[in-house]
Amino acid sequence: MTLDFTYPIGTPGQPWGEAEKVEWRSRQRKQRSYVDDVLPRIERLRARFDVEQYGDLDYGPDGRYPVFALGSLGWDEALPSALVTGGVHGYETSGVLGALEFAEGRAADYAGRINLMIVPCISPWAYERIHRWNAFAQDPNRNFRDGSAVPESAALVKLVAPMRGKFLVHVDLHETTDSDESEFRPALAARDGKPDIPEGVPDGFYLVDDSINPQPEFQRAIIAAVEKVTHIAPADANGEIIGSKVVDPGIIRYPFKELGLCPGVSDAIYTTTTEVYPDSPSATPEQCTAAQVAATCAALDFVLEKNK
After folding, report:
1. Scanning 24, 65, 188, 236, which has the fewest C-beta atoms within 10 Å of its C-beta?
2. Phi-psi map region of 74: left, alpha, beta (phi>0 left; psi -120 to 50 alpha)
3. Which 3 state secondary structure label does DSSP give 65?
4. CATH number of the domain that residue 270 is part of
5. How many separate domains does the chain show?
6. Does residue 239 lie in a domain region?
7. 200-239 pLDDT, tens per residue?
């Protein structure tokens, strides 16, 4: 293990202070538009969903970002409920597109069977800059806790709080890209003053289950559906994916709530984090978005069948 001496910000072995974070932010450039890409699609869904603005993220000179949730019209407390989240990490494009495509297409198949809350883009500033962190060099997906100091995380926690424990299922849509190794992990190591330990990028789709509340049958049902759309990531030579033991093909486990991960915010019985790999030579970005939709549908189908 060696400290990363190549990241252009900070002193190796020393965590960043405010000056380094300001320098990091100054290097981030807007590369696409939340207003143009995401908000019009949400607006067009107003006839089919109860669209709620649940937060207004103020990033000063970079602007303000309203964030929205889509809820089933005629929410029925007698029905089970599901939460679908995307764009926790703004650079994970298929998470945002998968949530939107599910809302535009397949969500209608579940009307009258399960209540849906869909949050397509939790981190719009990062979406525009194709980055993992928010403007303050914070990772929302380590900070989904009560009293969170991370604006994106705090807004979602507040939104979900009245429904906490009432969701039956929560699907959180993510992806892994080559930039994890080339940018985000080196940046994390530099920010925290820790060694940069490459983990490799898994080639294919995989899931993260909750190690405190594992649901292996649920996870396997999602894998079975997704492998019809794209390939499943194999374990490495150590029987691991990103340093975690593979417990079933394409499935690893993390303690969601302990780590402040998004699926822990809902207290749902059935939770999962999806990961696709759009940089794979064996998959296209379109396949990855389709895999996110397939995973969401498979999760809902499983819990509806299980809870007849």
Report:
1. 236
2. left
3. strand
4. 3.40.630.10
5. 1
6. no
7. 899 999 999 999 999 999 999 999 999 999 999 999 999 9
Is the residue at 96 inside a domain?
yes
Sole residue written with tokens 């819990």? 303
pLDDT in tens, 259-274: 999 999 999 999 999 9
CB 295 within 8 A of CB 287: no
| Contact by Cβ (8 Å): 186, 4 | yes
| Residue 221 placed within a domain | no
- CB within 8 Å of 47: residues ≥ 6 apart: none
CA-nearest of 143, 138, 117, 101 to 54 is 117
Distance spanning both ends of the chain, measured CA to CA: 52
| Number of Cβ atoms within 10 Å of the Cβ of 240 | 15
**Would you list the DSSP string of 145-186?**
STT-SSHHHHHHHHHHGGGTTTEEEEEEEEE--THIIIIIHH
Rounded to an integer, what is the distance from CA 87 to the centroid of its chain? 5
Half-sphere exposure of 234 (CA within 13 A, CB side): 4
Which ranges constitute the DSSP H helices of the chain? 18-26, 34-37, 39-44, 93-104, 124-129, 151-160, 179, 185-192, 216-226, 256-259, 285-306
- Rounded (5°) CA angle 189-138-172: 100
Please report, as a single letter, which amino acid is at residue 91.
Answer: Y
Q: Judge whether 257 and 63 are in contact, CB under 8 Å.
A: no
Q: Is 40 helix (H, G, I), strand (E, B) or coil?
A: helix
Q: Are 71 and 117 in contact (CB under 8 A)?
A: yes
Q: How far apart are CA 90 and CA 173, in angstroms?
A: 11
pTM of the predicted structure, to 2 decimals: 0.96
How many Å apart are CA 292 and CA 270, to the nearest integer? 16
In the predicted structure, residue 4 carries a pLDDT above the cut 60: no
Q: Could you tell me if residue 1 is inside a domain?
A: no
pLDDT at residue 76 in the model = 97
